[in-house]
Each structure stands twice: as structure tokens, then as C-alpha cells.
Amino acid sequence: QVQLVESGGGLVQPGGSLRLSCAASGLTFRNYIMSWHRQAPGKERELVASISTDGTLANYGDSMKGRFTISRDNAKNTVYLQMNSLKPDDTAVYYCCARRVSTLYKYWGQGTQVTVSS
């Protein structure tokens, strides 16, 4: 079965950085568009960033542009999210998502908590 396992979350001070990882198994990773989403308490889940199957195209949510970078390593079946200049508003549970090209079905990871606080 498909499994997405996120790691790298934690507590960081404002202005700090974190790197999230999502290891995928049970799927042909190179055939999946990968994305990160986040959900803060009382808010809807929102797109953070997505990346094409070959890693050449990336899209970001407006508030993440210039601070976050999504990347993938198809040889390691892993997608990453480098987060810099973190703000308290970035506090949320971050979820990894996989969607096969030309389909709508999405697989989700269990999420990893990111807390930005002094």
C-alpha cells in the first residue's frame, strides 16, 4: 500500500529554518506530482507547494514564495520542503501529498507539526 512518511518538523524560532522530508513507498514515485499542504488550528488546509514529476516545475502558495523551496529526489522516492525565514503564521501541521498524473485521487501522509515561536 502507499505510504507517505513526513519528518523534520519541530519547534523553531521566528526567522529560523526547517527542512521537511517525505519518504514515499508503495508507488512509482516518478509518476506522481508531489505537494506539501498545511493546516493550522481553526483554518482550512492550504497548498504550500507542489512539484512536477521530474522536478522541473514548482508552484507555491502566495505567502510562501521566496521563503520556501520544494524539491524531490526520484532516486530516493523523497520530496523535501526547505523553509526559511519562518514566521509564527507558518505554525501548522504540514502534510505530504501524492497525486498520480492525470488522476484526481490523492494520498496523504500523517503530517508533521511545525511550530514557530520564541
Largest sheet: 7 strands, mixed
As a percent range, the share of strand residues is over 45%
Termini separation comes to: 40 Å
The secondary structure category is: mainly beta
Overall residue-averaged pLDDT value: 96
How do the SSEs run, as a string of H and E?
EEEEEEEEEEE
Radius of gyration: 13 Å
Structure characteristics:
single chain; mainly beta; 7-stranded mixed β-sheet; 4-stranded antiparallel β-sheet; 11 strands; 53% strand; globular
Task: Kindly describe this structure.
By secondary structure, this protein is mainly β. It has no helices and eleven strands. It has strands at residues 3-7, 10-12, 18-25, 32-39, 46-51, 58-60, 68-73, 78-83, 92-100, 106-108, 112-116. The strands form two sheets. Strands 2, 4, 5, 6, 9, 10 and 11 form a seven-stranded mixed beta sheet that branches. Strands 1-3-8-7 form a four-stranded antiparallel beta sheet, with no helix packed on it. It is globular. The model has no long low-confidence stretch (mean pLDDT 96).
Task: Give the gist of this structure.
By secondary structure, the protein is mainly beta. The chain contains no helices and 11 strands.
Write the layout of secondary structure elements.
Elements: E1 3-7, E2 10-12, E3 18-25, E4 32-39, E5 46-51, E6 58-60, E7 68-73, E8 78-83, E9 92-100, E10 106-108, E11 112-116
Parallel strand pairs: 2-11
Antiparallel strand pairs: 1-3, 3-8, 4-5, 4-9, 5-6, 7-8, 9-10, 9-11
